[in-house]
Amino acid sequence: MSEIPYKIYLEESEMPKEWYNVRADMKKKPAPLLNPATLEPVTVDDLSHVFCRELAEQELNETDAYIPIPEEVRNFYRMYRPAPLVRAYCLEKKLGTPAHIYYKFEGNNTSGSHKLNSAIAQAYYAKKEGLKGVTTETGAGQWGTALSMACSYFDLDCQVYMVKVSYEQKPFRREVMRTYGASVTPSPSMSTNVGRKINEEFPGTNGSLGCAISEAVEAATSQEGYRYVLGSVLGQVLLHQSVIGLETKAALDKYGVKADVIIGCAGGGSNLGGLISPFAGEMLRGEADYKIIAVEPKSCPSLTRGTYAYDFCDTGKVCPLQKMYTLGSGFMPSPNHAGGLRYHGMSAIVSELYDQGLIEARSVEQTEVFKAAEEFARVEGILPAPESSHAIKVAIDEALKCKETGEAKNIVFGLTGTGYFDMYAYEAYNNGTMGDYIPTDEEIAKSLADLPKVD
Amino acid sequence: MSEIPYKIYLEESEMPKEWYNVRADMKKKPAPLLNPATLEPVTVDDLSHVFCRELAEQELNETDAYIPIPEEVRNFYRMYRPAPLVRAYCLEKKLGTPAHIYYKFEGNNTSGSHKLNSAIAQAYYAKKEGLKGVTTETGAGQWGTALSMACSYFDLDCQVYMVKVSYEQKPFRREVMRTYGASVTPSPSMSTNVGRKINEEFPGTNGSLGCAISEAVEAATSQEGYRYVLGSVLGQVLLHQSVIGLETKAALDKYGVKADVIIGCAGGGSNLGGLISPFAGEMLRGEADYKIIAVEPKSCPSLTRGTYAYDFCDTGKVCPLQKMYTLGSGFMPSPNHAGGLRYHGMSAIVSELYDQGLIEARSVEQTEVFKAAEEFARVEGILPAPESSHAIKVAIDEALKCKETGEAKNIVFGLTGTGYFDMYAYEAYNNGTMGDYIPTDEEIAKSLADLPKVD
To answer: Which residue range is the domain that position A189 belongs to?
Structure first.
């Protein structure tokens, strides 16, 4: 085996030409999405009112293990992919661990995260369908930034509804989106019915992601030639994000490295699902075994403290119902939680794999997360996003266990992005004013009491 | 010749093991640095009061063409280097040009720019000399960020004097520095004699780079075990930055590409000097010919409107005198100029190469620069730093000339960094409130009237 470099870059010719659809290898599939009006399983036709037809088909495709990546998408990928698989030599040395630590770094693009992998695919299918543009919502702006880059590339109109408090207090990602030609509207706005209604009921409201979703869906369905797009949770998104795991596996295989532990942060599950898909596929086919760990914030613990049940995907309750680990669609993590991963539920695929025991879950406090982020940044150079740092925290924990046992395990984690636009959170950590916010059992029980009744 | 990928990554084994010192191949050398007190050429002993001894030696070394890169520095380089040489296929297509455009991208590290290449070298020599720490100044924080990362890696104390207005209005890079363990002091401070004096004379002042330099130098020379470090202008910095040009040349050679035009932005000259060094070396040895273009802002036009003369390197007039193209050490570009590259002078090496006719210079207006930045970002994905975008602007101009003439020239430019921390400037551009600021002949003549008298 040749010496492993600090960064393993695949050749462009080694990049995946197909996405991998892990559902095809699952004997027990995720439960079907339900139409919120009829409580019947949704059809491609149902979904096509909101999503592009080809994406609606991908959303419901449980049989094809491999789906070709269109050439136009592969050309875009080539501008920032293959992403490096980095051997964390400096972190290993700092920890004094016999473990070998690898991380797949998805932050080497202007959107600063893995979100671009799905944004470009969704924009491509919208363009191919002859649409004029797409609408979406964004909180702090990571997904909106990725989508605006993708739309700019395909010359599509991009309308982003941005939670008002972020629009006003976090102007930087807003300006990145505008630089890429997107129109960014603070939500709730006066340009949709739902926005006007909310502004009337709650004058001066700061907005919420739920409201922004509702506005974006209304904008998509009320304009000719527009569809709505979403950056996480959905099966199509995990499909596109499988490029992360496929590249990771190809890079490990190239150097004859067998992963022992695979770690990803989990909010809606897009990164985790993408990273682990090909590895989970091997497990499902009985070809290999891995310890897979999903890491979530203690302030939003859907896997570790939620219930596996049908729930609304959005607080506006306009999207299909999905069976997933959930804290209830009305659950809101503390506004003081700065670490991201705030979604109340979890991808149906990740949820089902977790329920089947292929994935473990762990929750961590945000001050521990920022401590790990800082330790990592100081030796590995990269300033990680708070979301990604959840995985760093558990990778360090696992590496320190190896130090105790003397095991030279191969630990692989997903470094989903960079923290350049999260410096207010780092400032709070640096100033010692950051706290930990753990919901009480009563709070979780209360939001779970509102689960929809599905027989 | 095999097909050229979007991104040419060298193998780690192909990375340079030596820096290249272009002065060794110059028949006419840059004029010597002068001691400001005696007006005699400075010696290594003179410089060693302020700089580490090994860096002082590098500063005055005009004879060794190659200087080994210490293994510890090469190991750090391996965390973010080799940097990709990117073929701008998408930009070429957008412009409809027959030219082939390449850019060397130095923004794939947390400091966001090429500055890290010299910061890590300077931190290494400081550590090797047994120092406790280093001091420096920073404006918006690019250099300070790079240095704090480098010091963190070698466990050196890092004291950064940050221009007060930036400290208060641009908190993000400040927090990156603190995350890497640096102490960041708004300048003028009350912790140095010069700072107290300035605060007394000008209560409520916003600070300036000149003042911050003076504070940093005082802090270095008044604390046991500290030295001062600087991120541009100096010969040692250009030496370290030659890693940019060496990698670029190796990547081009690997694919049999001969550059025709090489373009770099120029403030103090660290990026431009590093990028062009090996190419200029070939020209000096009569082995090849290139068209090399230095691009500067019209608001700070040292090469295109300055004078080639001895001047102070700092507004505090404590550093050695250097012969360079200069606008006078009292020259201040308009505070409304957001495009960076604000230094009043230019690296002595770049100045001498320009004087010998090996380099051309061009100045551009900042609104043109941001227009080019936006055009580039939309097709190539990367959001460029305003500084880097000066080179983009001229690369586009040259590519459009090729479109007229039908020539398939190979155009190479340096993309020094990313613009994530420059979103206020992008916001001004997006809002149409950005202006162009061109000094009058009278303003330049006035600041040039203060040049030191050197016979």
So the answer is: 19-68+114-228
The pLDDT of residue B263 is 98
Half-sphere exposure of B453 (CA within 13 A, CB side): 0
What's the structural domain count of chain B?
2
Structure tokens at A248: 């990771």
Mutate to test the interface with A, among B10, B167, B172 (most CBs of A within 10 A): B172
Residue A112 contacts B, CB cutoff 8 Å:
yes
Q: Chain B: residue nearest A116 by CA?
A: B381
Question: Are A420 and B421 an interchain contact pair (Cβ–Cβ within 8 Å)?
Answer: yes
Do B101 and B119 lie in one domain? The reply is: no
Listed residues B228, B254, B284: the one ending a domain: B228
What's the CATH number where A201 sits?
3.40.50.1100
Is A262 found in the same domain as A197? Answer: no
Closest approach of chain B CAs to the CA of A435, in angstroms?
17
Q: Which of A91, A7, A105, A103 shows the shortest CA–CA distance to A396?
A: A91
| Domain end position, chosen among B228, B263, B291 | B228
Is B236 among the domain residues?
Answer: no
Q: How far away is chain B from the Cα of A88, in angstroms, using its nearest Cα? A: 9
- In terms of CA atoms, which chain B residue is nearest residue A180? B378
Interfacial B residues in 174-193 facing A (CB < 8 Å): 175-176, 178-181
**Residues B40 and B105 occupy one common structural domain:** no
B418 phi/psi in degrees, rounded to 5 = -105, 160
Whether B128 and B89 share a structural domain: no
- Which pLDDT score, from 0 to 100, does residue A1 have? 45
Rounded to an integer, what distance in angstroms lies between the CA atom of residue A426 and that of residue A250? 34
Contact B175 A430 (CB under 8 A): yes
Question: Looking at the structure, do residues A196 and A288 belong to the same domain, yes or no?
Answer: no
pLDDT < 50: residue spans in chain B: 1
Picking from A79, A181, A420, the nearest residue to B90 by CB comes out as A79
Judged against a pLDDT cut of 50, whether residue A276 lies above it is answered with yes
Q: Which amino acid is at A455?
A: D
Residues B201 and B103 in one domain: no
Domain-embedded: residue A100: yes
The tokens for B75 are 């190991």
CB-based contact A369:A339 (threshold 8 Å):
yes
Sheet holding A133-138, edge to edge: A183-187, A157-163, A133-138, A226-228
Contact in structure between B325 and B354 (CB atoms under 8 Å) = yes
User: pLDDT band at A145, cuts 50/70/90?
Assistant: very high
pLDDT at B55: 97
Nearest CA in chain A to B12: A5
Q: How far is B44 from chain A (nearest CA, A)?
A: 33
- Residue B7 sits at the chain A interface (C-beta within 8 Å): yes
Cβ-Cβ pairs closer than 8 A, A with B, add up to 113
Q: What is the DSSP string of A366-396?
A: HHHHHHHHHHHHHHH---B-HHHHHHHHHHH
My answer on whether A147 and A268 are in the same domain is no
* CA A415/CA A409 separation, integer angstroms: 19
Cross-chain residue pair A427–B175, CB shorter than 8 Å: yes
Mutation target to probe the B interface, by most B beta carbons within 10 A, among A420, A421, A422, A429 is A420
Share of chain A above pLDDT 70, in %: 99
Please indicate, yes or no, whether residues B42 and B120 belong to a single structural domain of this protein.
Answer: yes
- Residue A191 within any structural domain of the chain: yes
Which amino acid, residue B22?
V
And the tokens for B392?
């983009």
Strand partners of residue A20:
A66
* Cα–Cα distance measured from residue B351 to residue B342, given in angstroms and rounded to the nearest whole number: 16
Closest-approach residue (CA) in chain B for A383: B110
In a domain, A73, yes or no: no
* Chain B residue numbers touching A11 (CB-CB < 8 A): 5
Q: Which residues from chain A sit within 8 angstroms of residue B9, using beta carbons?
A: 9
Q: Which value does ipTM take for this structure? A: 0.89
**Average pLDDT score over residue span A93-114:** 96
